[in-house]
Amino acid sequence: DGGITQSPKYLFRKEGQNVTLSCEQNLNHDAMYWYRQDPGQGLRLIYYSQIVNDFQKGDIAEGYSVSREKKESFPLTVTSAQKNPTAFYLCASKPATGYEQYFGPGTRLTVT
Amino acid sequence: DAKTTQPPSMDCAEGRAANLPCNHSTISGNEYVYWYRQIHSQGPQYIIHGLKNNETNEMASLIITEDRKSSTLILPHATLRDTAVYYCIVNRNAGGTSYGKLTFGQGTILTVHP
Predict the structure, then answer these.
(1) Are A22 and A6 in contact, with CB atoms under 8 Å apart?
(2) What is the pLDDT of residues B59-110, one digit of tens each?
(3) DSSP per residue over A2-46, as a string?
(4) Distances (CA, A) of A96 to A24, A35, A102, B83
């Protein structure tokens, strides 16, 4: 089945630790995105990538880093510099000439 | 991208049509209207999009006013599984080689009752 995989579904970390969230897609999509969602709120864009080895900051990139070494993979690292990392993180992808973003199931990160 | 305004919540009886409104009074000529929905604790799902004309697909219909300042998403026969948060988004990058940045507001919580 084609789709977007995010793992793990739930992740727990201690404050001060960096953590990397996985996002893999087998849809052959060029663009990939990371969003953050806080309770009762809409999604906010963290980073996006249009092609391999290129990515751009979104609206709330501080405290996050990404890489895009392969077309199918776009991992997100939540660094210790992110002041409020506890949130629901969503990865999405889109074909270059398409209209629809396809979302993964999300990773719920809890930092204590 | 233009800002959108949606009611925070709406109710609908199962089997009836659900009509979800969205105001986007500052929309510009090259901006599309998108609708996504998010069922609790899942990733959002694309529903439909349009520019000027009304659109229909297997999930819903999108009615855009002639001045394009508002639109309505219609779920013709709502089911319990349609209970979700519905997001109306205006975006100038509909496709092509654009990066397709979407700005999500708080959306409308639609509750479908038996």
Answers:
(1) yes
(2) 999 999 999 999 999 999 999 999 999 999 998 765 554 556 788 888 999 9
(3) --EEEE-SEEEE-TT--EEEEEEE-S--SEEEEEEE-TT--EEEE
(4) 17, 19, 12, 31
User: Chain A interface, mutation test: which of B99, B101, B102, most A Cβ atoms within 10 Å?
Assistant: B99
Quick check: A21 and A78 in contact, CB under 8 A? Answer: yes
Q: Would you give the DSSP letter of residue A70? A: B
The strand pairing partners of B12, in sequence order, are B112
Q: Would you list the DSSP string of B47-107?
A: EEEESSS-EE-SS-EEEE-TTSSEEEEEETT--GGG-EEEEEEEES--STT----------
CB atoms within 10 A of CB A89: 23
Q: How far is residue B43 from each of residues A9, A14, A30, A92, measured CA to CA in Å?
A: 12, 25, 19, 9
Which of A38, A55, A90, A100 to probe by mutation at the B interface, max B CB count within 10 Å?
A: A100
The Cα A61–Cα A84 span in angstroms is 12
Tokens for A45, please give them: 């864009």
Question: Using the beta-carbon criterion (under 8 Å), do B101 and A58 form an inter-chain contact?
Answer: yes
pLDDT tens per residue, range A11-38: 999 999 999 999 999 999 999 999 999 9
